[in-house]
Design brief:
heterodimer, A: about 120 residues, mainly beta, Immunoglobulin-like, four-stranded mixed sheet, 1 helix, 9 strands, about 45% strand, elongated, B: about 140 residues, alpha+beta, four-stranded antiparallel sheet, three-stranded antiparallel sheet, rod-shaped
Chain lengths: ~120, ~140
Amino acid sequence: MEKTMQKNETTEKMESAPAVAPYMDIYESPEEIVMVADLPGVRPDDLELRFENNEISIKGVPAPVETTWKPRFREIGSFRYERAFKLPSGLDISKIKADFDAGVLTVVMPKSESEKPHTIKIHRR
Amino acid sequence: MFGYSYALHDPFFNQLRRRMMDLFDESAPTHLSTWPPANLYDNGEALVLQMEVPGLTEEDLNISIVQDVLTLSGERKNRLPEGVHLHRRERPVSRFSRSFTLPYRVNTEKVEADLANGLLTVMLPKHPEEQPRKIQIGAGKK
């Protein structure tokens, strides 16, 4: 189960780092639910997105810095990103689209046809 | 001057200060003097400043250096589509401006900045006068 992400030495080391929740925006339209997560410093290969048992989970490991760099001050700690949400029913899991650009993950989850609002045409006689 | 740089060098103090700001500032998204978060490194030849700016492009960012003060400013526009129902809004949105007092003089002509995966890395080569120099010891006159 955990083997889906290709591991190298650095990511394995980083996986022992404490987990923090990425900042997220979540919004919903009649057609879809959209999740946006800030994952700065994470390379696309070090990001894992999973759907399982009506749950979406995001895991990302920021790339390590050069070991020869001596820190003068640090606000960005050594950590990994981790967050999971229970999903409501009525989403079309097969049509989920995810995009990861400039450290921002966007997941678009369309609602099933039956969940979308329908307008019913009323015929005049 | 010394007191200020001490605070910058102390990660605990910084964490604490950020937490305090969060506590007192209800309108956190519009008050971002501590955004973006940064790390400063020294690799021997250069200072390396890294800042987390997810979602921003080169056009959204301005970097200026005046003497030993580097300022990063810009705007993070994060508009939502109209008419959506909002469940969570945590990602900071604002104009921002953050200044750092550099511990060394840098060669401003040779500064390079790189933006990748939402991380801005600014390489600031030290000014030639800050580089270690070998001093020739003259032979004493007899």
